[in-house]
Amino acid sequence: MPKETEMNLYVGNLPYRITEDQLRAAFEEFGSVSSCTIIKDKVTGQSKGFGFLEMQEGS
User: Fold this and answer.
1) What does the alpha-carbon distance between residue 59 and residue 56 come to, in Å, rounded to a whole number?
2) CB-CB contact of 58 with 5 (8 Å)
3) CA dist list (Å): 53 to 1, 18, 23
4) Domain boundaries, the chain
5) Cα–Cα dist 12/1, whole Å
6) Strands, DSSP E only, in the chain?
7) What is the pTM of this model?
8) For residue range 30-45, what is the model confidence (pLDDT) as tens digits?
9) Residue 13, burial from CB neighbour count under 10 angstroms (0-12, 13-18, 19+)
10) What is the C-alpha separation between 9 and 2, in angstroms, rounded?
């Protein structure tokens, strides 16, 4: 049985209004998402339009 590893993904060009839950749901179609983070401006709290996902890789 192959060992599963974590795959870290950069996701760019996101709509500013997307939520982490919506982003997670979009990628769960392709596998288990262990974490999802949208990067936000420290002062305004507005999304910067990109984020990161960690997914399980393997079968």
Assistant:
1) 9
2) yes
3) 25, 14, 9
4) 1-38+51-59
5) 33
6) 5-11, 33-40, 47-57
7) 0.85
8) 999 999 999 999 999 9
9) exposed
10) 21
